[in-house]
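Researcher:
Attend to C-alpha cell order:
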Amino acid sequence: MADRIGTPHPLSEPGLWVEQTGGRVFPPRSPALFLDRDGTVNVDTDYPSDPAEIELRPQMLPVIAAANRAGIPVVVVTNQSGIARGYFGWDVFAKVNARVLELLDGQGVFVDMVLACAYHEAGVGPLAVADHPMRKPNPGMLTEGGRRLDLDLQRSLIVGDKLADMQAGQRAGLSQGWLVDGEAAVQPRFAIRRLHDDHDVGGLLAAIETLGRERGA
C-alpha cells in the first residue's frame, strides 16, 4: 500500500479522485456494484481521517466477494466534504483509502475503482461549489465510472447508507439500490431495498449472482 500512497494523487480535477485499483478488464457494457464507502464499506467515524481507526463493516464482505466471483466490477463512490471544509487534505484521504483497500485485501476481496468527490458548498477555494454534479445525490461519479469502465448502468446496483446514495443511483439510471439500515421504497423506475439483516443481504447476493449468470450467458 505504501507505493499507492507514494504515487501522485489520481485527481482528474481539483475535487475529483478517480483511481482504478486493479488490473481486471471487463467485457463492454458490464453491470457494476457501486458502493458508498463511509458507513457502508467501513464504519463511519465522522470524517474518517486516521487510517488506524478504520474498521470494515462485516456485512459488506460477502457482498463484495460475490461480485468478485461473478466478474462484476466493484466501484466505490464516496463524498468527501471533509476535504472541502479543510479538515484534511488529499494526502490524508490517500492514506485512509489505502487502509480500506488493504483491509479488504486481507479479507480476500477487492474493489476495481474508487471515485471521491471533495466539492461542497461550505468548501474553500476551487472546492467551494454548491450542488456539484459529481457530489451525491447527483450522479456524476456513477456516470464517470460508467464511462471509464464502459458499464451498463441500468443493470448496475448501488449500496449506501444515505438516501443521497439512492438518489444518485436513480439519477444515473440504475433500477435498484440497497439502503443500509433504511426502509424499502418503490419510486418511479427505481426500487430501494432495505439492508438490515442476513435475509436482506441474501436478497442482494441473489441479485449479484443473477447479474453474474446473465453476464456469462
